[in-house]
Amino acid sequence: MSSSATNPIVPGFAPDPSVALIDGVFFLVNSSFHVFPGLPIYASRNLTDWTHIGNAFNRQSQLSLQFSDTKIHPQADGTTMLATGGLFAPTIRYHIAIGTTYVICTNVVYPEDGGDDICQNFIVSTKDIWSDVWSDPVSFDFRGIDPSIFWDDDGKAYICGSAAPGPMTKIHLFEVDLSTGQKLSEEVKVWDGTGGIYPEGPHLYKQGQWYYLLISEGGTWKGHMITVARAENIWGPYEEHKDNPILTAKGTDAYVQCTGHCDIFRDQQSHWWGVCLGIRMRGEKCIMGRESFLLAGEWPEGRWPSLQHVTPEVRDRRLQLVVQGPPIMPRHDADLLYLRNADLAKHKLQGSTITLAASRADISQWSEPVTFIGKRQRSLSGVSTVTMEVPQQATSFKAGLVHYKDEHRYARMFFDSEACEFVFELVNKAKSIARSERRKAGNVDLNVRFKVTYTEQELNFAYTLGGEEVSLGPVDTAELSGSDFVGPIIGIQLVSDDSSCEVVFHDLHVE
């Protein structure tokens, strides 16, 4: 094995990572916000190669994403923050004595009446993480986000989390019965953080006689940082580390910015590592959003933890010591994504063929289900393609290929049957961007191939009909970049007022 690893270890839409070591395999979970299935689970034997093996939220009956829309928040510096509801900042933990894996998370609901956000906190669990069979959620009472589980030496279970509302949230702690969600103690504020906005993403660890509380502060953009405090009693008082923050890219010209929301863990050799989110950023261009990065750490007993800066490559001889094993195979179709509470009956999969039944609602809104299926963009530079059978029917429809972040930001290319045209659209409501381009289709008695080619700088759309390729666009990636929670998804969609309209697609390929 090499003594280096390529960062990000999970590229694309992969924020807020958390890791657990289970029977010699590392498992990582991410936030998923507005997509189903959610809470993706990745597995690795070597910390370098990560495979998508399932999703902890994989049945629509587990919870609802109906009100996981995206809010546009203007910032003081003239930019905007786009905050998407849904599944925030999960933590994965394994209880070796009972052989159970837990994922704890918050479903943030944005009420239709514009009232305060509703934080639906829950725990799901499994006895066999490879099975992809997870329990129904066990709810617990906590008005806040980013809960994390900690077991003390006496077997008692605790939850710490970021108590709402922001921006000056507080870190709270309480004892809990994980099987029922019942609180077994009062909820106690244990730390305010060091003064940065949005103290959140807490994780509690114990080393020797000390309890260590690791949190994120500064917001999840360029001020993001990791700070730590410790106490000899789990309830505090917590003493701040004099060298805080122990991780940040704030004020630097590093390529990987916004580093934060970190979880630290030990490998089989008791070496310390961290995973955190970060954003690959060149000027205003950061099309991939928040991704998962690996970093080496040190934590001598009785001392404070330290973490390396995040770089595009991790160089550490300890990677050679991580236990190897046979390759891990991905779970079939685990990476396919739908938006919010999709009508799954309108998406039929058979081998490499996908048949879509039309929705009346379009991706430009969130309140109604849409017909869309896609995958996370994983490559900074790549090509995604799909072939569409053009229906020979009188009904009007719009169908094609979409590069999607949320209802406010997307670029797409589709066939408009009523106008008999191919259409390109770019929309970013947060930046007041809206433009389109149309081309007459000519003979459409043939299959059409849609393609989007992307680099860090630009997206280029094209369609091929009858052997002729026609380009549309392009899109400067800065036009779809910005401060947000989510990442790019590339997929196919179908819109029509005729609910009986169906369109067949073949070989959806997303890099």
Automatic annotation (TrEMBL):
Gene3D superfamilies: 2.60.120.200, Glycosyl hydrolase domain, family 43 (2.115.10.20). Keywords: Glycosidase, Hydrolase. SUPFAM superfamilies: Arabinanase/levansucrase/invertase, Concanavalin A-like lectins/glucanases. Coiled coil: none annotated. Residues 348-497 form the Beta-xylosidase C-terminal Concanavalin A-like domain. Belongs to the glycosyl hydrolase 43 family. PANTHER family: BETA-XYLOSIDASE (PTHR42812), BETA-XYLOSIDASE-RELATED (PTHR42812:SF12). This is Beta-xylosidase C-terminal Concanavalin A-like domain-containing protein. It comes from Knufia obscura.
